[in-house]
Amino acid sequence: xxxxxxxxxxxxxxxAQILEWLAAYTPPSYAALRPGASDDELARLEALLGAExxxxxxxxxxxxxxEDGVNGSGLMLGAWTLMPLDAVAEVHRxxxxxxxxxxxxxxxxxxxxxxxxxxxxxxxxxxxxxxxGRTGAVHRWTRYGxxxxxxxxxxxxxxxxxxxxxxxxxxxxxxKPGMLHxxxxxxxxxxxxxxxxxxxxxxxxxxxPAKTLGAIREAxxxxxxxxxxxxxxVLDLADPEAVAAxxxxxxxxxxxxxxxxEDDIAAALRGNxxxxxxxxxxxxxxxxLPTAIRHRPPSFADIRTALRHESVRARFDxxxxxxxxxxxxxxxxxxxxxxxxxxxxxxxxxxxxxVAGRHDAGKRRRSS
Length: 368
Fold this sequence. Notes:
The chain has helices at residues 5-25, 27-32, 39-49, 55-63, 85-102, 154-166, 213-219, 225-233, 240-269, 272-275, 300-306, 310-322, 328-342, 345-355, 361-367, and strands at residues 81-82, 114-119, 128-132, 138-141, 147-151, 176-180, 183-187, 198-199. It is α+β, with helices and mostly antiparallel strands.
């Protein structure tokens, strides 16, 4: 197997994006993730498996080596649980033994290069997802021998999860992101928890940034980021008091900057976005708007043009048709975020995949 650096980099970027979302919206789910694995731990796992772990899967496990689960549900797209490494080794061993017992006749029940990484639950490893180390594709396995190809790659799976969290109204598959007592649960769930589950509808990010280095830096004005970077680079990470003081100081500045920007934009829009997005911007306030919206509120026509693909435009047209004027600000900003995501090839692929309905893994899993 050859090292696929781009695939590993895509996995790292997508998972980092997911981690930021979890930390901001569902802290209990974020806390349920286990720390990343060291290179020594990954080497020991490979020895137990008797197989080489693909680099993209190592990239994921270096950031989060499994989860403990919350509310009886895993946080991965499709309501899967990210398996701890000891469970990975146990499932691989059990499946390999079954393959040996069955012999060589017929299709393979399990191959050594198939590395499991998700299961139905922390206590239910009868079926889940595995990465084929030869092809790079993600397949679903069941205890009955089903082996269905679900995603082209681990990166594609995680990118689809990221886009489903950031732009949930584009999701055409059966699983929708939602919250159950503050945790991420893909649903709607059945049974006793169905009434308490609240679907996530792409609400604006929390007013204040998460207290992480990446979130703080992103919230700072561009002309202050060099100063932030300089002081961060000389920070003694072994001194918890110094780290805490650094975070407190710059988080406070990021909060103030975010509030100032919101006030400036509110003044610039002068309420007109509610009646007719994209028109009657006060010239004296143009400088207050971020360049991302081209110095004026985007209009529905701007957004429709930026969406680029007819299938996505059709979904936008339907949402606009169903909306009433008081909902226009949220509708406009949500779809403008989607349009900006589609400017990135990675985001474009993921949005089109979801809108086109190619993600039907959960539907097949429920019918099995």
